[in-house]
């Protein structure tokens, strides 16, 4: 099964192009969508059916193929499963439709849209690379193209950590809400400074002459407010994406709604998983292809996910351990 998914991953299958409001250098495709909420709640009935409808949170996650991708999205998906009235937009920096992403997203039962939104090649030579911009731009255009003018937009990276209270707070955003993000820069935090309920400045170790020195995970935008700026966009300029986007929607200091107890609590953390190259493990192809033990199917799945690569001629030689001793893998077959 995983071999089939692996082949589909690299088939370059693309559907539903997004073209409106994209520049000539952008291309994006909706790979799959699901609007029905199939999550299973630990209640006799849905816990939110007795209250008035909640504004929908459009949670945008840029992602890209790498060894840790599926692990990151699995962890994030487990968090989002707890959040009602949420639509997850997963935008993948890949020029085809990653079928395994659809398989994973469907397992959560969360309404979602999966977009293939590769970064234009011209920007891959930039230093630093403006990673995630093409994905967020594609998500913004999906929101516009589908006429979404009620609800809240939030950008959440696949490796960040979220307090569930954050979602309750940003849901009431009228224009733009802001809040602290932990583990950012030399100060270990990026945050607005609030006095008497109003934002008066910012505490961030990399001001860089930015009007809005905030992290991407540190603000949410009301869609009705976003719709007032039909040309709002995000530039391919690493480090200035947040600043230029907030400028493009006409944000003013008086518009900012401080959350997280007037920005005195951290409800989102900029955690980052250590990146490693995919391991190359030397194993006889007969073992990889065999279903006599659990090892063959497991190794094929890891290969399909890009976590490790199996070679019969190079890489780390693999053994099996039993009774405190190592033996050749062939001994388990």
TrEMBL record:
Pathway(s) this gene product operates in, as recorded in its UniProt entry: Protein modification; protein glycosylation
Membrane topology: Single-pass type II membrane protein
GO terms under biological process: carbohydrate metabolic process; chondroitin sulfate proteoglycan biosynthetic process
InterPro entries xrefs: Glyco_trans_43, Nucleotide-diphossugar_trans
Enzyme Commission number(s): 2.4.1.135
Protein location: Golgi apparatus membrane
Cofactor field: Mn(2+)
Record has Iron-sulfur as a keyword: no
Key word Glycoprotein present: yes
Alphabetized UniProt keyword annotations: Glycoprotein, Golgi apparatus, Manganese, Membrane, Metal-binding, Signal, Signal-anchor, Transferase, Transmembrane, Transmembrane helix
Single GO MF annotation: metal ion binding
Active site (UniProt): 242
Catalyzed reactions: 3-O-(beta-D-galactosyl-(1->3)-beta-D-galactosyl-(1->4)-beta-D-xylosyl)-L-seryl-[protein] + UDP-alpha-D-glucuronate = 3-O-(beta-D-GlcA-(1->3)-beta-D-Gal-(1->3)-beta-D-Gal-(1->4)-beta-D-Xyl)-L-seryl-[protein] + UDP + H(+)
Annotated positions binding Mn(2+): 159
Single GO cellular component term: Golgi membrane
Signal peptide: 1-17
Predominant location: Golgi
PANTHER family membership: GALACTOSYLGALACTOSYLXYLOSYLPROTEIN 3-BETA-GLUCURONOSYLTRANSFERASE BETA-1,3-GLUCURONYLTRANSFERASE, GALACTOSYLGALACTOSYLXYLOSYLPROTEIN 3-BETA-GLUCURONOSYLTRANSFERASE S
Family listed: Belongs to the glycosyltransferase 43 family.
Protein name per UniProt: Galactosylgalactosylxylosylprotein 3-beta-glucuronosyltransferase
Gene that specifies this protein: GlcAT-S
């Amino acid at each position: 099964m995983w071999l089939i998914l692996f082949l589909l991953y690299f088939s370059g299958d693309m559907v539903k192009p997004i073209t409106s409001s994209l520049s000539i250098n952008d291309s994006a495709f909706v790979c799959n969508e699901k609007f029905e909420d199939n999550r299973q709640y630990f209640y006799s009935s849905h816990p939110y059916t007795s209250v008035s409808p909640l504004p929908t949170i459009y949670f945008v996650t840029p992602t890209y193929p790498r060894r840790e991708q599926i692990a990151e999205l699995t962890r994030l998906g487990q968090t989002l499963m707890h959040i009602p009235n949420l639509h997850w937009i997963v935008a993948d920096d890949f020029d085809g439709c990653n079928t395994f992403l659809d398989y994973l997203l469907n397992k959560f039962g969360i309404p979602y849209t999966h977009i293939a939104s590769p970064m234009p090649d011209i920007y891959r030579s930039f230093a630093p690379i403006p990673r995630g911009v093409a994905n967020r731009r594609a998500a913004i255009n999906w929101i516009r193209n589908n006429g979404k003018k009620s609800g809240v937009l939030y950008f959440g990276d696949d490796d960040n950590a979220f307090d569930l209270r954050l979602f309750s707070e940003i849901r009431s955003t009228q224009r733009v809400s802001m809040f602290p993000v932990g583990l950012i820069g030399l100060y270990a935090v990026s945050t607005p400074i609030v006095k008497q309920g109003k934002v008066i400045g910012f505490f961030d170790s990399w001001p860089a002459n930015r009007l809005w020195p905030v992290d991407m995970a540190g603000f949410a935008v009301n869609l009705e407010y976003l719709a007032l700026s039909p040309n709002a966009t995000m530039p391919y300029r690493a480090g200035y994406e947040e600043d230029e986007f907030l400028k493009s929607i006409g944000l003013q200091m008086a518009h900012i709604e401080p959350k997280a107890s007037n920005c005195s609590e951290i409800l989102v953390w900029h955690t980052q998983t250590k990146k490693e190259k995919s391991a190359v493990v030397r194993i006889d192809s007969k073992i990889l292809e065999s279903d006599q033990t659990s090892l063959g199917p497991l190794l094929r799945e890891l290969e399909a996910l890009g976590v490790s690569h199996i070679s019969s001629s190079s890489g780390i030689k693999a053994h099996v351990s039993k009774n405190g001793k190592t033996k050749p893998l062939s001994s388990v077959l």
